[in-house]
Amino acid sequence: MTIAILSVSLFVCLFLGLPIFMSLGVATFVSLTTSNIPLTMVAQTLYQGVDKFPLLAIPCFILAGSLMERGGVTQQIIDVVLRFTGKITGGLGIATILACMFFSAISGSGPGTVAAIGTLMIPAMINRGYDRGYAGAVSSSGGTLGILIPPSNPMIIYGVIANCSIVGLFMAGMIPGIIIGLSHCLVAYYVARILFVGSRGEQFNAIEIVTMCLKGIFALATPFVILGGIYTGVFTPVEASVIAVFYALLVGSVINRKLNFTDILESLTDAARITGTVIIIVGTSTVFGQILTVNQAPIKLAAFITNISTNWFVVMLMIIAVFFFLGMFMETLSTIIILTPVLLPVVMKLGIDPIYFGVIFVVTNEVAFLTPPLGVNLFVACQLSNVSIERLSLHVLPHIVAIVLCILVLAYFPDIILWLPRLMGYAAY
Q1: Does residue 131 fall inside a structural domain?
Q2: What helix, strand, coil percent values describe the chain, rounded to 5?
Q3: Dist CA 127 CA 187 (whole Å)
Q4: How many structural domains is the chain composed of?
């Protein structure tokens, strides 16, 4: 009965347009008034939900990404990848995706990656004769890599809730991130050929490439400093996030000399605003998840799913279908926070590695960034490319197909995801 009241209350609040954190809080309160659980558990669980040390990495990674964008690091990355694409058909589109892949290893945010790279690349593509829809599509699609290529804010949230290694999750996201990034590049190339645009890229010049690499060496070294230190065990993800902030300040203000006091204040404001949004959702959803656990919702769901099939791949396909549907209506972090406590016991009962499941969870949510009515990346790209959401939605369809095909391959071949974590001893199975 309590689970039914909880679920109905949540969907009513979401239907009425209440914010996610408020919907979770109201649904929890309504269900508690009809149960024997004391209301004091709300305050206790709220505090325990946000009192997680790994969560400290999120505001620092957000701040580092914002500082690097304002400090000229983004422009240096774009300058280098533009030289590598040469005169390839769709070269600017491919360069946009490669720049998104590189910036993803700094920001950890999908919409943030679209904003940082798209602000510079979308006008450049339009000026070169690219279709506005094409320019918006490659930018929004490339931005989805922001939640997969480490460091990833959704992976940090999942790791905290699932109580599994965040370093292992970061490692597991590397190969899938590269595979999906390259698939986006192939789509950008073939779409450009069909549209007969983008054949006038920068001339490939080895001397210019070396010059640009030397000029932007500190910008290009950023992911290797952050991720290299994590993977080698020199520092933890939280320590890495703090180092990323100081490194961004060093490169932006001392080396590039583009970061001033006003930029730093604006970056701090952005980081505080985004972090506040994340933390309040984490707190309320922790209480929501606790109510589900107390009422044995995960056990009941596991019994229901295993009655349908005990084949792990069939179960994963069903879960992926649910993720696709919910992603159209719910924000990524909210989906992860709400569903992880419910679904993780189910998949672990079938012998599925929690790190593998976490990566599939995050990868599937990449599609959510590109599907209306939520589609956050689409709305950011719409503003930058000045096209309608309907037109942009059509242009991203080939990219969505590419992501879905990659998800099916990754789901069926877990070794692609787990090879690096197993090599370093982080995988559970």
Answers
A1: yes
A2: 80, 0, 20
A3: 21
A4: 1
Residue 41: inside a domain = no
Domain span including residue 283: 53-423
Q: How far apart are CA 159 and CA 156, in angstroms?
A: 5
* Cα Dmax for the chain: 73
**What's the pTM?**
0.80
Please check whether residue 286 lies inside any domain of the structure: yes
Residue 58 lies in a domain: yes
pLDDT tens, the chain, 429 aa long? 667 777 788 778 777 777 777 777 788 777 777 777 776 777 777 777 677 777 777 788 878 878 887 888 877 877 777 777 767 777 888 888 988 888 777 766 677 778 778 877 888 888 877 888 888 889 888 888 878 888 888 898 899 888 888 889 999 999 999 999 999 999 998 888 887 665 554 555 667 777 777 887 888 788 788 878 877 778 888 888 888 889 889 988 888 888 888 989 988 988 888 777 777 777 777 777 777 777 777 667 667 777 888 788 888 998 898 888 777 766 777 778 778 888 888 888 888 899 999 999 999 988 888 887 667 778 778 877 888 877 888 889 999 999 999 999 999 999 999 998 888 776 555
Is-contact 276 59, C-beta < 8 A? Answer: no
Confirm if 99 and 117 have CB atoms less than 8 A apart: yes
Element at 227 (helix H, strand E): helix 222-231
Torsion from C-alpha of 295, 297, 299, 303, nearest 10 degrees: 130
End-to-end CA distance of the chain: 36
84 near 238, Cβ under 8 Å? Answer: no
Q: How far apart are CA 79 and CA 202, in angstroms?
A: 10
Pick the closest to residue 119 from 61, 87, 74 (CA basis). 74
